[in-house]
């Protein structure tokens, strides 16, 4: 795969301050400023690449935010977005990162930032990782590496962690957690298994692994799909009568039933929930049209949950257009990695079975 001149933002290179933080920190990793934010950071920020396969030229990109509390003692959390194919800068930009967007003035070329009062970095140090290779700014010089799967992703991420903690040994004694959402319902337990096996086998450095957490986790299309109708009933979004009618018609198989009566009931439910935000039923529903088309294609959701709708004007922090403008419209430098995609369609991941994932949920309890 050839990498020529591509967009490369101040966010990652032009505004990176290159100097040593301490003897333990990697060279040229300290980030001193980002576009749209003029004040000093409340904690140290670092960014860079870790080589997970030297022979293939496979590299994973990370952005590390140290804790605003006590970074020497506070937990270190690895954050993984899902997809598969979503950059973990989704979490950094839209969810629990250190910054929020402000409402944009039309005369401004880039959105302004302010500190997020609910940032996870207030109480922990967060590693935002683009994984697997081909997602976000992570890449490989071997194009076949983009045909990957969950097991290989877990192995690569484990390799990343071992090398990352070698570069940041001052955090090795901190409690370590793995967290993620969506397809990370598969990424997280498979990675937790690799980490646990490595600890048992005495792999160095020994990670102080304490646990994991998953939000809105994907495990298996059939199992997850069949849970959605009972969920909307439990949340009071459909009536008891309609739920019972659907239950009788579908015989608890809402995912791939061939029954006409079941399809009819699912369509009724679809009309009732078509304008509900499937990720948070209490939040307004806004998603960029292009991104939504990718989500529908990739997540194989049943028809009753493919409609997202738009139920209100979003707050600036949730505006997808801000997220695209921020990393992509800043002044650029020449680079040798691909342009940042929010959700990569070039990573054909092979999904492993739910039985394996469920087994990991029990065997990796810590």
In terms of structural class, how would the helical and strand content be classed? Answer: alpha/beta
Helix content: 25-40%
CATH-derived topology of the largest domain: Rossmann fold
Class of the largest domain, according to the CATH hierarchy? Alpha Beta
- Assign the CATH superfamily of the largest domain: Alpha/Beta hydrolase fold, catalytic domain
Describe the structure.
It is a single chain. The protein is of the alpha/beta class. It has two domains: 10-220 and 334-363, 3-Layer(aba) Sandwich (Rossmann fold), CATH 3.40.50; 221-316, 3-Layer(aba) Sandwich (Rossmann fold), CATH 3.40.50.1820. The chain has helices at 10-14, 89-95, 150-167, 184-200, 221-234, 240-250, 260-273, 289-299, 320-328, 354-363, and strands spanning 30-31, 45-53, 58-65, 76-80, 99-101, 113-115, 125-129, 139-140, 176-181, 209-215. Strands 1, 2, 3, 4, 7, 8, 9 and 10 form an eight-stranded mixed beta sheet that branches. The chain has a two-stranded antiparallel ribbon with strand order 5-6. β2 (45-53) and β3 form a beta hairpin. α6 (240-250) packs antiparallel against α7. The longest helix has 18 residues, at 150-167. The chain is globular and about 65 Å long. Residues 1-23, 287-291, 293-326, 328-351 and 353-358 have low confidence and may be disordered.
Fold topology:
Blueprint: H1 10-14, E1 30-31, E2 45-53, E3 58-65, E4 76-80, H2 89-95, E5 99-101, E6 113-115, E7 125-129, E8 139-140, H3 150-167, E9 176-181, H4 184-200, E10 209-215, H5 221-234, H6 240-250, H7 260-273, H8 289-299, H9 320-328, H10 354-363
């Amino acid at each position: 795969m050839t990498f020529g001149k591509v967009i490369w933002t101040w966010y990652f290179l032009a505004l990176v301050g290159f100097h040593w933080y301490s003897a333990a920190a990697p060279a040229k990793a300290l980030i001193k400023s980002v576009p749209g934010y003029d004040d000093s950071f409340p904690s140290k920020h670092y960014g860079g690449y870790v080589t997970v396969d030297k022979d293939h030229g496979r590299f994973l990109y990370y952005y590390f935010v140290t804790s605003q509390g006590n970074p020497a003692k506070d937990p270190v959390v690895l954050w993984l977005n899902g997809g598969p194919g979503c950059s973990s800068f989704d979490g950094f930009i839209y969810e629990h990162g250190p910054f929020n967007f402000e409402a944009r003035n039309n005369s401004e070329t880039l959105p302004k930032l302010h500190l997020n009062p609910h940032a996870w970095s207030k109480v922990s140090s967060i590693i935002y990782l683009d994984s697997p290779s081909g997602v976000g700014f992570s890449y490989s010089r071997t194009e076949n590496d983009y045909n990957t799967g969950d097991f290989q992703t877990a192995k690569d991420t484990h390799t990343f962690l071992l090398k990352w903690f070698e570069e940041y040994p001052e955090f090795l004694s901190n409690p370590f957690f793995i967290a993620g959402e969506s397809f990370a319902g598969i990424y997280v337990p498979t990675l937790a298994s690799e980490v646990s096996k490595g600890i048992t086998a005495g792999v160095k450095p020994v990670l102080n692994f304490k646990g994991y957490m998953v939000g809105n986790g994907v495990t298996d299309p059939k199992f997850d799909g069949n849970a959605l109708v009972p969920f909307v009933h439990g949340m009071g979004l459909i009536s008891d009568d309609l739920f019972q009618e659907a239950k009788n018609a579908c015989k608890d198989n809402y995912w791939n039933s061939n029954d006409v009566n079941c399809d009819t009931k699912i369509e009724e439910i679809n009309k009732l929930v078509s304008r509900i935000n499937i990720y948070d039923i209490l939040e307004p529903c806004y998603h960029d049209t292009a991104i939504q088309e990718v989500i529908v294609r990739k997540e194989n959701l049943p028809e009753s949950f493919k409609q997202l709708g738009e139920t209100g004007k979003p707050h600036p922090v949730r505006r997808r257009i801000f997220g695209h403008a921020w990393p992509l419209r800043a002044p650029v430098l020449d680079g040798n990695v691909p342009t940042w995609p929010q959700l990569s369609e070039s990573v054909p991941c092979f999904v492993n079975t739910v039985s394996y994932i469920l087994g990991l949920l029990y065997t990796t309890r810590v």
